[in-house]
Amino acid sequence: MNRVRDPFNLHNLSLNRPGTIAAINILRATATTAATEFRDRAEKAAQQAVETAAKAAEFAEQAAERTRDAVEAAAKEVKRALDHTAFQSQSQSDLEQGTLLPAAAAAAAAEETYDEEDTEVEEEEYEQGGDMASFSIPRHVPSFTDPARQAEDRLWAAATRQRAGPVAGAGGVLGGVQDKVGGFLNPDRRSLPMYKDKPYGYGPGGARPRPLLRKKRVLGLFILVVLGLLWFTGFFDEHHERARAKLGDWGWLSSDTKARSKADWLKRRERVVEAMELSWDAYERYAWGYDEFHPVSKTGRNMAPKGLGWIIIDSLDTLMIMNLTSRVTHAREWISKSLTWDQDQDVNTFETTIRMMGGLLSAYYLSTEYPNLAPISDDDVGAPGEDLYLEKARDLADRLMSAFDTPSGIPYASVNLGKFQGLPSHADMGASSTAEATTLQLEFKYLANLTGEKDFWDRSEKVMKVIDDNQAPDGLVPIFIQPSTGHFHTQNIRLGSRGDSYYEYLIKQYLQTHKAEPIYQDMWNDALQGIRKHLVTYTENSGFTIVGERPSGLEGNLSPKMDHLVCFLPGTIALAATEGLSEREARKKPGFWNKQREADMKLARELMQTCWGMYRYMATGLAAEITYFKIPSDPLPESSSHTSPPDSIFDDPAGPDATWRKDYEVHQMDAHNLQRPETVESLFYMYRITGDVKYREWGWDMFKSFVNYTAVEDGGGFTSLSNANVIPPVIKDNMESFWMAETLKYFYLLFSPEDLLPLDKVVFNTEAHPLPVFEVGRLLKTGWERKPRTTTTTGETKSA
């Protein structure tokens, strides 16, 4: 069951439990840092509040002064309009008759507030220009002597007092300013107003409409305070806002609701987009242009003097697929203005090819074939920069080709980019990794197809001939090969590190050229039969299907060890079985489906379940880098009678004591999680091919675990874990480039409609960069043939 984050580990805290002291120390350090940061922010907030209040008070005093001046000017204008002498002699008699104008009565009351000197000057002015004849008495005026009027006065006064209370008691800076200004304009709000038809504080709105001047003043003050608060909280800092606004309140992490419609899956896909935005924006803010990003310390580091664009280029096509145009624009600008390969820097041939060259070629493909994905005018046909990605890829490829300058044609492990020089490995007696040497072909072949440069094709293809000429028994190749001789350097056979992608690229080379090179399908079929024969067995308690290792060769013992990297295999087996079609379509295709393809799909399903169990076994729901399995002392061969456990086995109410858990074992040194993509990659293939929604649900649970346990506070993005088997987990402070390049991309595609990048139209390189299926011509075609097989082995299975 997916756990909700328990920051203080209250339900599992035990001083005797391994890692508890470390967790407490981490908690103490985190709490101290948080307290210091909170204190600093509080002090800053208090200072800002005092400054804001002072400014507000000053503003209110200025507004009150302007209002006082306006009232005095208005009173003088009224006085000029009245015949002061006539008014004084007749006002009492007119008041008794009920004929005094309300305005005149107001003037009479206001007159008492003027001093004598001002009165004499104004009377002089009136005598020179005043004329009472311009005023007339209305026919109907209210009677102020009517006895019924007294009851009415008491009613209005009561209503006025009830509504004046809350206003007078308003709190805060705004309330105090409003009361001060309001008291000046109306010194006695509780007294009966002069106009009884519109008394103060009475009416449909519950209060008398404020004068326009006061409305503007209060509104302006309110806006000023709001803008100050927004500035203080960082609202106008674009990076800060983007980093904190994503993933909502994260309440969906604790939801176990199953998706029931296409709309539900699209909503889940949006969560993946938000995680991508959060990851990218954190990198953009704290480590832009650097090759490495440490999200906890919020720092970056370069692998070369001027940087290689390791994260930017590797993540570029993910941004394009997710249609994040503004971020693609920023990345493209960096590539255009800052990226250079002309640096005196040694780089790994394999990693640079699959990440940098593969990323650039994929970006070129998507920008030309899918112009509606993150459209940028600079990529349009005829635009000056339309070939930017291709030109950068070609420049890099020319430098990487120096790795192939070896006696055998097997590329060196490294290249100096600035010197165009291949370099043998500093370890393993100069040997190259077999997987690394044979995981360059998709990229160089596609580049050859784009440029017409046959040398890219020929030199990468020759590697496959040299490998196959060794005639490895049952198609299983050792993990090291010597560039100087072209011969294998060790007997160690595994589908984990240094062996995995050799098998992956066999079937993908066949699919890339529209099945025009069956030689690679033959090599794949041989290898898959060898895997079944020598590496597949079943666990002792629950019968999980695993793929082990042969460290001492096929005649040696079987080690029940699976790297997380091996979890690429179930998806690749399914892809090979249907050749990119859905299982339903493949079964209906005349003459296509057979018992072998049926058996391959069964094996793919069983291995997918085992890889899912690697996640369910861990405390965080995130798989370890390496998992060991309990197998019988005499391991069962793949051909033995076998029934896979049901998926419900993972929901055993026994929890930690469940029988199935006895088949899994994770060593302390192997409990780290590097945000690897292989399992979600296989889930993507399995869902696309089988249509079984359970693979989507498994993927959703995995995604929630990543968000729950690897998210970094304060908009730092996501990090790897040093220990994923404790809660809270021990963080590693590193975001791998394949987190955005592969893991999030496969989550996004898993939750997307099936017509987005269909498997019969594209092949994904081993870094998840989509490249197109293309037709080969006379120039570019398979230039070699396999030698007849002369070696084999019984490969009797023995236990380690």
Automatic annotation (TrEMBL):
Keyword field: Calcium, Disulfide bond, Glycosidase, Hydrolase, Membrane, Metal-binding, Transmembrane, Transmembrane helix
Listed InterPro entries: 6hp_glycosidase-like_sf, Glyco_hydro_47, Glycosyl_Hydrolase_47, Seven-hairpin_glycosidases
Keyword Disulfide bond: yes
TM regions (residue ranges): 218-236
Keyword 4Fe-4S: no
Top-level taxonomic group: Eukaryota
Enzyme class: hydrolase
Annotated S-S bridges: 567-611
This protein's name: alpha-1,2-Mannosidase
Source organism per UniProt: Neurospora tetrasperma (strain FGSC 2508 / ATCC MYA-4615 / P0657)
